[in-house]
Amino acid sequence: MVAEVIKHLPKDAQWATLQGSHQLSIVVTRKNKLVLAILLEDKPTDIPRDWLDSLYNGDELSPEQINGLLEQQPDDAFLLGKVVCSCFGVRENTIKQAIAEGNNTVAGLGKALKCGTNCGSCKTELASLIESTSAVSKPHPKEETTNEYAL
Ligand code: FES
């Protein structure tokens, strides 16, 4: 099957394949953009549709994204969000999780994840994430529950 697919590809296409005992993946790119992904497995899979959409509609694929497609596993960029702190490779969703766990200061995030503790250029974005995540997780005053009932 792989040879049959490859022989019909345009001359400027590049491809990678991975064939295991239970799965076959064929990834085709042109100018490093995804044009075709054939992901077959002998059992039902749970490949997130929005992940595939983001790869088809995104910029050039990174090596990690190509490997993710071949392995049929979403890459860290999809699962954990973009890198916010490049010094320590700390991603957005990891930071949001830490904020939700109570690390709601830049210093607290630095203590928990090291982000912001080297060059400091990510501190503004850390503060923005704290503000936006805290705003989402705090209940609206009218939504706060109480055990008091008006009679
Ligand atoms: S980018 Fe976060 S400390 Fe440098």
Automatic annotation (TrEMBL):
Transmembrane segments: none annotated. It holds the Pfam family Fer2_BFD. Keywords: 2Fe-2S, Electron transport, Iron, Iron-sulfur, Metal-binding, Transport. Residues 83-131 form the BFD-like [2Fe-2S]-binding domain. The keyword Iron applies. Its cofactor is [2Fe-2S] cluster. Belongs to the Bfd family. This is Bacterioferritin-associated ferredoxin.
